Amino acid sequence: MSATEQPWAEIAAGYAFDGAALDLGALLWDGACHPDAQVRIPLPMLNRHGLVAGATGTGKTKTLQLIAEQLSDHGVPVFLADIKGDVSGISAPGRDGEKVRERAGQVGQDWSASGFPCEFYGLGGGGAGGGIPVRATVTAFGPVLLSKVLRLNQTQEQSLGLIFHYADGKGLELVDLKDLRAVVAFLVSDLGKPELKGIGGLSTATAGVILRAITALEQQGAGGFFGEPEFDTSEFLRTAADGRGVVSVLELPAVQDRPQLFSTFLMWLLADLYGDLPEVGDLDRPKLVFFFDEAHLLFNGASKAFLESVTQTVRLIRSKGVGVFFVTQTPKDVPADVLAQLGNRVQHALRAFTPDDAKALKATVRTFPNSAYDLEEVLTGLGTGEAVVTVLGEEGAPTPVAATRLRAPRSLMGPIPAEDLAAAVKGSPLYGRYAEAVDRESAYEKLTAEQQAAEAAAERAASEKEGARAPREKEEPSLVEQVVGSGLFTSLARSVGTQLGREISRSIFGTARRRRR
Question: E-strand spans in 337-454?
């Protein structure tokens, strides 16, 4: 049988693209690697989203690194979440060695070491070693995402939405958690309850749950993630002076024990991008590719409203020129409606040690197109750095399923030294813009002052003798009038672009639209 008649040759023909493409590796067939049969992803198809999946230790992180490097070379900015702290090496050249040369020879790769332009970020104010701080105001984060962080049930989520609705209707920005706590407390006070009568109400019990959840979040050290200066997600769209795309790495090791927090923050970043970017349709290359690591954490315990918002955001953000790759262990970690949007698949090895593992394996096989491979056998037999691949071809149709030995990343496969990371962060032009938190006068301080003034006035009134009060030319404003009409809410509406009385508009995810500076 000639080479052109071999089954693998037909598979290889499905990846023979004419235009720009990313090289993943060489085709595997019947135990042999074919370096002349390259498995690739067309560059314009990267905004059709994707999934990188596989058991722990099978090489998912190196696959992200490989794809990110080539995107950067093509001038496409990349966002990566570094959960374990081992992705920072993408900024430094890799180390030549026997294993690298062996892999490069097997897959037909002309390997050379190279670092790539990077920015390192961290959630909140973790200092230079933790990256340039990424903060969001409570208003921008919105009630749907905040409810997930606070672990509220559906009733409590609806009540939080009511609180945001009230604040939005007044044109108010809740900058940090103190602002939110102050408004919640006000709206269940005797003076504040009338404010919600026309649109429902907020029970004291539900308010108590919300307030306790806010306090617990602060005690976990998450208070610094909310505040100003708020991060502008357009920073992720930059290219370096040499034309390569900047790789934005969000360093998360310090918060890896709070997965619900960081996974929801990643969704805020994506939702904020969706709200800001214009419609561009299909481009010859994406404006940004966003890798969403540990994706199962985003969907665990998610409400129906949350899942619907994720699905809608993923479906629509493609037209904004953004590709999203979810990274997780098995496809079943991703809801079916989201999985249906992911056109590019890189599936690393799965293990079948338990009945649940075997069930997950069968479910994974069913998500692939018909294949010439015995996928159950192949998926359990793949080595580290090997994967089963199917992508969208240049015409938008799925390519044949291809077992693939992946190329070696050109950058350092591991973390850079902590001092080098800190130096890179402090040397960034963005560090001075976001490093220092701005603690403006907030609802908490203003409302406290108003309450103290009211208590002092009450004490003075009580000390006056009965009947000795002189007629007043004008009634003193009530505390509600003071708070709603001026003090508290004027201080809350303090961000540039926010005007008292102008309702804050929100995107499909409930996040506030960007206030342009």
Answer: 344-347, 386-390, 402-406
